[in-house]
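Risk mitigation, structural track. In case the binding assays with iron/sulfur cluster fail to produce interpretable data, a predicted complex structure has been prepared as a fallback.
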Amino acid sequence: MAYVIQDSCISCGACEAECPVSAITAGDDIYVIDADACIDCGACASVCPVDAPIPE
Ligand code: SF4
Ligand code: SF4
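Fallback model:
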């Protein structure tokens, strides 16, 4: 299991600093999560203003 950031991401960057395993980086259009690194903690979703990260 890993979280995935949806296209609704507005690239605010808030989630990047919250990830305990540094799995989130800025992509070309939206932020992206490294599925292999994500530990499914949900911290990114809790700080996102548009609820873009969802568990997949
Ligand atoms: Fe990082 Fe947790 Fe979000 Fe996974 S669910 S990307 S580990 S903050
Ligand atoms: Fe995108 Fe939400 Fe992360 Fe901001 S907090 S960069 S809107 S996923």
